[in-house]
């Protein structure tokens, strides 16, 4: 049982970080008129299905549409 408690303590901050980044990316995406590639649905899928890497990819590449 101690193993699972220790594992939870390690994974919980990562899970929280992932959720916060996904929510922030989705909010940012909803406020933008243009995104790279022009298709918001694709970016929604990248953000949600990409887990932790998806929002990072969006913030680095997807936001270029408003420049």
Question: Which characteristics define this entry?
Answer:
single chain; 67 residues; mainly alpha; 73% helix; elongated
Percent strand = under 5%
| Count of helical regions | 3
On the 0 to 100 scale, the average pLDDT is 91
Structural class: mainly alpha
Q: What sequence of helices (H) and strands (E) makes up the elements?
A: HHH
How many structural domains does the protein architecture include?
1
Number of strands: 0
Major β-sheet, in short?
none
How large is the radius of gyration? 15 Å
What is the rounded distance between the termini? 52 Å
Shape: elongated
The unreliable regions are none
Helical content class: over 70%
């Amino acid at each position: 049982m101690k193993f699972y408690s220790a594992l939870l303590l390690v994974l919980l901050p990562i899970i929280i970080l992932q959720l916060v980044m996904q929510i922030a990316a989705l909010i940012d995406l909803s406020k933008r008129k243009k995104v790279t590639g022009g298709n918001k649905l694709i970016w929604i899928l990248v953000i949600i299905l990409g887990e932790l890497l998806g929002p990072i990819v969006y913030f680095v590449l997807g936001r270029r549409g408003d420049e």
